[in-house]
Amino acid sequence: MVVARDRWTSRTSFIMAAVGSAVGLGNVWRFPYVAYESGGGAFLIPFFVALFTAGIPMLILEMGLGQRLQCAAPQAFAQIRKGLEWFGWWAVGLSAGIVIYYSTILAWAWTYLYHALTLSWGNHPEDFFMGEVLQRSGGPGELSAPIWYLVVGMVLTWLAIFLILRKGVRNVSKVVMVTVPLPLFLLAILLVRGLTLPGAVDGLRYYLTPDFAKLLDWEIWLRAYGQIFFSLSLASGIMIAYGSFLARKAEITNSALITGLANCGTSFFAGFAVFSMLGYLAQVQGLPVPEVTDSGTGLAFVAYPMAISKLPALNAVFGVIFFVTLLTLGIDSAFALQEAFTTGIHDKWGVPASRLAFGFIAVAFPISLVFTTRSGFYWFDIADKWICDFGLVIAGFMQCIAVSYLYNIRDFRRYLNSISEVRLGGWWIIALRYITPVVLLAILVMNLRTEILGLYEVAGREVSTYGGYPRWTTLVGGWGMLAALAILGAYLWRRRRRST
User: Fold this and answer.
1) 69-101 burial: b if 16+ Cβ within 10 Å, else e
2) Can you list the domains of the chain with their CATH numbers?
3) Which residue among 225, 321, 423, 459 is least crowded, i.e. fewest CB within 10 A of its CB?
4) pLDDT digits over 57-95, tens only?
């Protein structure tokens, strides 16, 4: 008996889920800092150019592909061209890898949510984060037993993911109606508080002051495309899986526009909340704003906690609000990543959602415990670089080539125009055939160049990015991705020759 495919309860729930997947921790801790370093307010020019020439075209492609073919990435690419199913597994395999190490950040956030009640990080939050919370060792090879309170955070993370996914996409439809707007509301509270503090204007000036000269630097444009690409959860099978739960005649193009603009708007909005608070921290410490700013984990677990501890009142309340914001931002992205992988399993072998949710976590949880050891921070950083700088870039490039050249893309565009509120013109095909692949290839070459030159510059000695691991670990990861792709490509070529 054929089981009816699970469906979103409404178009709103689909858009909420897509926005929840796209809007994640990177919107809060990466975009504001990247915008400042890349020209401040002027960075919005390449940022929105990248959104409309790569981000939204890719969103339309992925949502539309899932909706039209009614299946996850592996089965979708198998329908595009016989023998391409392996590429779909490549994409959703990356999603599985990301959620395993991404859960680490949520484990840290659970730990900090507890410490926010007493502001345990004190006046030295960096020492607290690296020394007391992570108990960081000297390098990735210095393993230890898992740290118990990080294990508790990991258990809470995987339990939340299981409870959300165990009843399928209809349960996700209900959850995202709360978890997507909640962090925006909490960010608004943090913004209002930040704007009332002395020094906030200095922080915002630092964030938004335009430096148009930087727009002449082609690396800034590549950085904008990279930020768009990774921020929208592209090339990981998420949007294909989410699109497959839409009805066959559901609208696509306008939904993709809403998702892309909501994601970018959240990034820009988060910058005000972050830099208003950092401007206050700079004034309290008597330092220029550049000396208190940071990106990534340094912002979320060092700079911002320090700013919270310096507030004149209600410090613990705002500490709790901040880490609840991180948790709600992270959990939507986490279960979306798992859903991309498990939907592929379901479509291939018909495994029920509840068994898939439990089975995936039964495998992923023990692996994720590596990141709760004293060397876990190093392995987190290595995995992040290995998967994002190489794996996802390759996946995005291959996806554009597969759909643009191996699929009847003009017929695909006619199909999308027949069901969508916004009609696609020739620009969509140009973006997918030429602009996005060229940009992704340039990003991949830059990443390899950075790793190779970095290795040569330090021949004979180790390089410390976060306190003591050799850069060859990330270089090997990058070449490992390319080697895996070459092996899969050779396998595909061999099968094709046999079939002919």
Assistant:
1) bbbbbbbbbbbbeebbbbbbbbbbbbbbbbbbb
2) 11-499 (1.20.1740.10)
3) 459
4) 999 999 999 999 999 999 999 999 888 888 899 999 999
296: left (phi over 0), alpha (psi -120 to 50) or beta: left
**To which residue do tokens 């990534």 refer?**
296
Rounded Cα distance between 319 and 390, Å, is: 35
CB 144 within 8 A of CB 375: yes
How many Å apart are CA 31 and CA 168, to the nearest integer?
Answer: 32
The conformational region for residue 350 under phi > 0 = left, psi -120 to 50 = alpha, else beta, is left
CA atoms within 13 A on the CB side of 340: 31
Q: Give the C-alpha separation, 122 to 64, whole Å.
A: 50
Residue 44 CA to residue 54 CA, distance in Å, equals 15
Report helix, strand or coil for 124. coil
* Residue 456 Cα to chain centre, angstroms: 30
Q: Two tokens at 15?
A: 């858009």
How far, in Å, CA of 298 to CA of 64, rounded?
Answer: 37
Q: What SS3 class is residue 408?
A: coil
DSSP state, 5? P
166-224 residue pLDDT tens: 988 989 999 999 999 999 999 999 999 999 999 999 999 989 889 999 999 998 999 99
> Tokens at residue 6, please?
């699970």
DSSP 4: P
> What contacts 498, CB < 8 A, 6 or more positions away?
none
Cα gap 419→314, rounded to integer Å: 51
